[in-house]
């Protein structure tokens, strides 16, 4: 029974050691790939947002809104009359 227990502990130590070494190598490999990616593939620089054009005159916008309201009212009236 002592031999079986000893073999189990040995197998556990080798298994845990292998996993530890593999994960350590994986951390280093991921770090190296991250450095290479940032060096050779930099993030694109974001462009500044374009300013929106201002409306030309308040009088023209009011008449435009009146036309839109009239068109919507006519469409609703026609839809409800069916």
UniProtKB/TrEMBL annotation:
The chain crosses the membrane at residues 12-32. The keyword Ligase does not apply. It catalyses: oxaloacetate + 2 Na(+)(in) + H(+) = pyruvate + 2 Na(+)(out) + CO2. GO terms for molecular function: decarboxylation-driven active transmembrane transporter activity; oxaloacetate decarboxylase activity; sodium ion transmembrane transporter activity. It is found in: Cell membrane. It is a single-pass membrane protein. InterPro entries: Na_pump_deCOase, OadG. GO terms for cellular component: plasma membrane. The keyword DNA-binding does not apply. It comes from the Bacteria. Its EC number is 7.2.4.2. GO terms for biological process: sodium ion export across plasma membrane. Catalyzes the decarboxylation of oxaloacetate coupled to Na(+) translocation. Heterotrimer of an alpha, a beta and a gamma subunit. NCBIfam families: oadG_fam (TIGR01195). This is Probable oxaloacetate decarboxylase gamma chain. It comes from Marinobacterium stanieri.
């Amino acid at each position: 029974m002592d031999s079986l227990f000893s073999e189990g502990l040995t197998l556990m130590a080798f298994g845990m050691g292998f996993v530890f070494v593999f994960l350590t190598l994986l951390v280093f490999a991921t770090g190296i790939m991250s450095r290479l990616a940032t060096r050779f593939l930099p993030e694109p620089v974001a462009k500044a947002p374009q300013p929106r054009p201002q409306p030309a005159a308040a009088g023209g916008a009011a008449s435009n809104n009146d036309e839109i309201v009239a068109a919507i009212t006519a469409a609703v009236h026609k839809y409800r009359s069916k």
